[in-house]
Amino acid sequence: MSTNAKAYWAMSIAMITVGSSFVIGKQVSAVFPVYLASAIRCGIAAVILLLLLYVREGIPKIIPRDRFWLFVQSLTGVFGFGICLLYGLKYTSAGESGVIMSTTPMIIALISFLFLRERLSLYKWLSVALAVIGIAVLKLNQLDVDTSTAAGSESLVWLGNMLVFLAVIGEALFTIFGKVLSARLSPLAIATFVTLLGFLMFLPFGIYEAFTFDFALPTILDWTYILYYAVVVTVLGFILWYYGVSLVPTGTSAVFTGLIAVSSLVFSYIFLREPFHWSHLAGIICVLAAIVISSIPSKAEENKAAIGA
Question: What's the pTM value of the predicted model, to 2 decimals?
Answer without folding.
Answer: 0.82
